[in-house]
């Protein structure tokens, strides 16, 4: 058969004829040349003996060299008693399975979601109605995504999460670390619920152990401190609008975020009301504050120095309200114990004897003063726009106590007016036992 081996030149000269040709190349290999009417295609066939039976098979080779190599491989297999046709089919199946596995792995890799991608999906799916969405996005963009954003969510472990938290704690922001751990837990639970990841990497992390215990603030400014604050404010270097904001929060019990987002259309100077719409309220409950003369005067001062016809506290471009943290940062900046050269006086201009205070402490202080002035607790809760915790009362008691609320704000305003008058004859009331 070796003598039948075609030369490369002879192979190249093969031409289709009127009839099909089967030309031997030796070793059981044949070159099949289809007839002209069948298109004249060239293919390779291998003839072998297995258990005394002559069997033909078509090879996959495209060139003569490939065909000879394939023939030699099948000849070896046939000598071992293995059917080359069966082996050819098994080889094709193995190739198919390997391709499917490769495709599955590729699909799996494509399906992998980075933490950044997971965060975007969480925002678009679950967070669109959250009022703190801008703050959540700011926190993740600042502290989470730069550290673990590019990692596949499936690969996140406790060590990745604690790395994020530890970096925040190292700069002294323990409360931010606490809040961010809670937010990451919400995001990873979202991922588990949708089979994006198999387990929540934050599940076994204790918020209090990893960050800090939740401390309930009880800071209340004393009446002496309110008098001192009134003396300190003019020299504190605050904007007039921020000074007004301090007295408004104290006299109306509103939250700093609710005040920051207020528009002038929410203030009715004739009716003496400050309306907080649902979209501005923390608990999604619209609220009307009946302004005392003290509070009304602060709104008038604010209106006289207004920088926007829409917003009480506009941003620099007057395109929206000021950042909700702006007022808080200004107040915090005047209670900084760190001395910064020529700014040291301003940095400590609002320090009070009983320690640091925040805008929310003003809300608590106003509510406490109402209680000390014999205002009923249910009325104070209404003034605070708190949601009734008792389900039975929440369902069956819908009285608004508008008259009582207006009276409570009036009483508080009168007390604040006395405390902020520069007179040594004003005697602070004693707290009820």
Helix-strand layout with pairing:
Blueprint: H1 8-12, E1 21-26, E2 29-33, E3 42-50, E4 53-58, H2 64-79, H3 84-111, H4 115-126, H5 133-148, H6 158-170, H7 174-193, H8 207-210, H9 223-232, H10 240-252, H11 256-260, E5 267-268, E6 273-276, E7 287-290, H12 293-304, H13 326-333, H14 344-347, H15 359-372, H16 377-384, H17 391-396, H18 402-419
Antiparallel strand pairs: 1-2, 2-3, 3-4, 5-6, 6-7
- Give the ordered list of helices and strands: HEEEEHHHHHHHHHHEEEHHHHHHH
CATH class of the largest domain: Mainly Alpha
Named CATH topology of the largest domain = hpI Integrase, Chain A
Mean pLDDT over the residues: 87
CATH 4th-level superfamily of the largest domain: Intergrase catalytic core
Strand order of the largest sheet: 1-2-3-4
Give the proportion of residues in helices: 40-55%
Number of helices: 18
Ranges where pLDDT stays below 50 over 5 or more residues in a row are 339-344, 394-398, 423-433
Judging by the overall fold, what is the CATH architecture of the largest domain?
A: Orthogonal Bundle
Give the total of domains. Answer: 3
Radius of gyration: 40 Å
Q: How widely separated are the two ends? A: 118 Å
Proportion in β-strands: 5-15%
List how many beta strands DSSP finds.
7
How would you sum up this structure, described in words?
This is Integrase. InterPro entries: DNA_brk_join_enz, Integrase-like_cat_sf, Integrase_catalytic, Integrase_DNA-bd_sf, Integrase_DNA_bind_dom, Integrase_recombinase_N, Phage_int_M, Phage_Integrase. Belongs to the 'phage' integrase family. Keywords: DNA integration, DNA recombination, DNA-binding. Pfam families: Arm-DNA-bind_3 (PF13356), Phage_int_M (PF22022), Phage_integrase (PF00589). By secondary structure, this protein is an alpha+beta fold. The chain folds into 3 domains: 98 residues, Integrase, DNA-binding domain (Double Stranded RNA Binding Domain, 2-Layer Sandwich), CATH 3.30.160; 96 residues, Orthogonal Bundle (DNA polymerase, domain 1), CATH 1.10.150.130; 197 residues, Intergrase catalytic core (hpI Integrase, Chain A, Orthogonal Bundle). The strands form 2 sheets. Strands 1-2-3-4 form a 4-stranded antiparallel β-sheet, covered by helices on one side. Strands 5-6-7 form a 3-stranded antiparallel β-sheet. A hairpin with an 8-residue loop joins β2 and β3.
